[in-house]
Amino acid sequence: MASIPLRIGDHSYDVLIGPGVRTSLAEVVQRLGARRAVVVSARPEEWVPDTGVETLLLPARDGEQDKTLTTVETLCGEFVRFGLTRSDVVVSCGGGTTTDVVGLAAALYHRGVAVVHLPTSLLAQVDASVGGKTAVNLPAGKNLVGAYWQPSAVLCDTDYLSTLPRRELLNGYGEIARCHFIGAADLRGLPLPDQIAASVTLKARIVEADERDTGKRHILNYGHTLGHALEKASNFALRHGEAVAIGTVFAGRLAGALGRIDQARVAEHQDIVEYYGLPAALPEETALADLIRLMRHDKKAISGLAFVLDGPKGAELVDDVPHEVVARVLAGMPRAPLAELVDTTDMARS
């Protein structure tokens, strides 16, 4: 088992990674002093460990269709009916969307109640469950309404991953791949638990330096500006990690077009993404003008288009990237039918 600390003043906690760590939940709840718990789970009831206290189990669905303010309101209504107080705890058990929605509900209910995450997907273990960002979608784009609310503990039980289909594992590899360009060592060839631990350690150090996303934390969004646009444009037929992988290839090409990195480093972006068996082409069905319009709604964009890009000093946020350069680089990206991108991903290594 690995225990990775994340220390942010009064919001410090540990991320436990390894087989069976979900059985620590009752101990965590006892330490918090909670007398009641609400567990929101997108997984079978037998996957949820005992909390040690009176518990309400609420079913959830992973997927963007429920990542809405309506779902948050529904959860908070259930908290009220159960009699949950500010001294109690909410527990999420599921993938990245469940983690986000439950985290936001916990942040808003009574202006903040403790939350513990049991991420069951690779994507949630390496990214969504760590760092305290919670958000839901609006029709205009992804993650446009949210709050910062650090969990009290994160239990990344690697036993959960043994049940994941191949494509869902690759969804998480999209986030692991982008770590290569934001400060991680080369993670290729390492056992999966070591890749998870390295990704979480990198994110923890970045969040400790910039909890509220005012500077360094921007680099965690490497590949995400185009990635989020692709998710929305494909009506979420592309999974988050798949879209981020394509966005990572694009970020390398854009950095090259702006003279920030050489062609060998540009090629490295594609090499890393392809190593993990992830898609690297834009869907043929997607209009480039639609992608640019969606990218203008990105949270990092203050005026014009903004991207996290590689460069001489490493990854950093670059503001006001010229529209014509973005359009030219997009037009130069390889294209493939959406169905082919998804099928290729399904058949890739796990």
Overall average pLDDT? 94
Q: Give the strand order, joined by hyphens, for the main sheet.
A: 1-2-9-6-5-3-4
Largest sheet: 7 strands, mixed
What ranges have pLDDT less than 50 throughout 5 or more consecutive residues?
A: 346-350
Shape estimate? globular
Return Rg in Å.
Answer: 20 Å
* Helix vs. strand class: alpha/beta
Cα end-to-end separation: 22 Å
Supply database-style keywords.
alpha/beta; seven-stranded mixed β-sheet; 350 residues; two-stranded antiparallel sheet; disordered C terminus; 12 helices; 13 strands
Write structural notes for this entry.
41% of the residues lie in helices and 20% in strands. It has 350 residues and is α/β, with parallel strands linked by helices. The protein is globular, with a radius of gyration of 20 Å.
Secondary-structure topology with pairs:
Blueprint: E1 2-6, E2 13-18, H1 25-32, E3 36-41, E4 54-59, H2 69-82, E5 89-94, H3 96-108, E6 114-119, H4 122-128, E7 133-138, E8 141-148, E9 153-157, H5 166-179, H6 192-209, H7 224-233, H8 240-257, H9 263-275, E10 282-283, H10 288-295, E11 305-309, E12 316-321, H11 323-332, E13 335-336, H12 338-347
Parallel strand pairs: 2-9, 3-4, 3-5, 5-6, 6-9, 10-13
Antiparallel strand pairs: 1-2, 7-8, 11-12
Helix pairs in contact: 2-3, 3-4, 4-5, 4-6, 5-8, 7-8, 7-10, 8-9, 8-11
